[in-house]
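Example (one chain per record):
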Amino acid sequence: MAADETKKTENEMPAEVEAAAKPAAKKPAAKKPAVKKPAAKAEAAAKPAAKKPAAKKPAARKPAAAAKPAAAAKRPAVKAEPVAKKPAAERPAKQKAVKKPAPVLRHGKEGKATVVDAAGKELEARTLNAALFGVPADINTLHLVVRAEQAARRRGTASTKTRGEVSGSTAKLYRQKGTGRARAGSVKSPIRTGGGVTFGPHPRSFAFKINRKVVRQALAMALSNRAENGNLFVAAGLKLDEPSTATLNDFLVKLDIAAPVLVVTHDEPSVAKSVRNLSYAEVSEVGALSTEQVLRARSLVLTEKAFAALNEA
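Predicted structure:
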């Protein structure tokens, strides 16, 4: 019996020790999750804490952006100090735009045309219309109008025939292959003698449009230039009952002016016919006067009728 009790006690004691040891081992195991939870909470708490400053970054930028207008608002404050410079009464008044004076003709007598008699002697000086004889010259306008007048005179009759207009057979000259020559289809081909012309000229008009106001302005510029240089004359005593080239030649020689000369008439056929055979002179009616004619001549001679019609136009 004693031996059995000792065995029981031996068996029971380890069981108690084991029972006592097991709870002791389990308690730390139960506490480990408790230790882990605070760690998870700390991590969870740390992550939002790290994100919050990131969310506050835009809030930190706004004051920086708001600070710029404040700095910019201060600049006018610095500039505003010299604003009160002078009272309005002391400020100098704005200068009014000064109108340029009208162009003045540079002749012996400004704005005048020289009147001569049949012997070529100067009689008087007449006033010119500033709207026609006082216009400053513009080279671009004059060039445009003269080019238009020259282009309008071109006949534009040059003409050539295309391969469709040339007379000839349309049959193939020889077979396509086997001859050793280059292939050929028609005798009217542009590459053959007697064939058509490629992109050749055809009858057309070279004229182009110019506004009437521009044409009149260019004529006024040309007349103003001749009057400005003192090359405008009025023939008071030039009256011819019948054409006489010798009489008109003597008149122009005595006048002693620069050639070529442009004689302007107004319904005076006898004077116009007397000028036609002079190599150094040209004649024109007032209504047909062109800018090119005036610029081509170095001196202008107007009859009494022509001057009255031109100066009053």
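Caption: The chain is about 45% helix and 10% strand.
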